[in-house]
Amino acid sequence: MSRWIRSFSTAASSLLADASHSLRQPSSFPVFRDVSPIRKLRRQLLQKDRTVGFVPTMGALHEGHISLIRQAARENTDVFVSIYVNPTQFGVNEDLSSYPRTWDSDMQKLEVLNKELADLKQEAPGRITAIFAPTSKIMYPTLPPSSEIDGEGSFVTITPLSKKLEGSSRPVFFRGVATVCMKLFNAVTPDRVYFGQKDVQQTVIIKRMVRDFLVGTEVRIVPTARAADGLAMSSRNVYLGDRRRSVGLTLHRALVAAEQAYQAGKIARADILGPARAITNRIVAEQQALSPTERALFEADYISLADPETLDELEVVDPSKGAVLSGAFKMAPLEESKPGEDCGLGDGKVPVRLIDNLILPSRD
Ligand SMILES: Nc1ncnc2c1ncn2[C@@H]1O[C@H](COP(=O)(O)OP(=O)(O)OP(=O)(O)O)[C@@H](O)[C@H]1O
Ligand SMILES: CC(C)(CO)[C@@H](O)C(=O)[O-]
Ligand code: BAL
Question: Which helix (H) or strand (E) holds 271?
Answer without folding.
Answer: helix 269-289
